[in-house]
Amino acid sequence: MLAQEKKQNEILLALAKKSALEVEKKYYALPEPLRREMKAIDDMSKNTQLRAEQGRLRHISQRVISDTVEKYRIDHHYSVVFNKDSASTVDYGHDISNEIINELQHVKVVYGPRPNFEDATRELLLAHPVSAG
To answer: What residues of the chain score a pLDDT lower than 50?
Structure first.
């Protein structure tokens, strides 16, 4: 499952880089100070969008893990399942980490639609119109 999340993050980074290159082409004709300012604003906007999207992916992954643990708990008639690091001293119980890992290997995570980084740039340009000269 972590491989799925990693792949989604790699796709996000590629989309953001592609969008940044396209935006640089759009700003090419602008005077240097304005081009630098618009690029800085656009980079900040894309970084914010990228971090938010990475957080969304992480949240989805954590939700899938929680749901898998809960299903395992119910299917195996456990009254409680908890992270062993959160217990101070528990001498009894059963470590189900490997079972959960095995369950998660069969899960296909649906992360939903990918963001459109061009939309962020378009919104930025509408909010801050650019004129040469």
So the answer is: 132-133
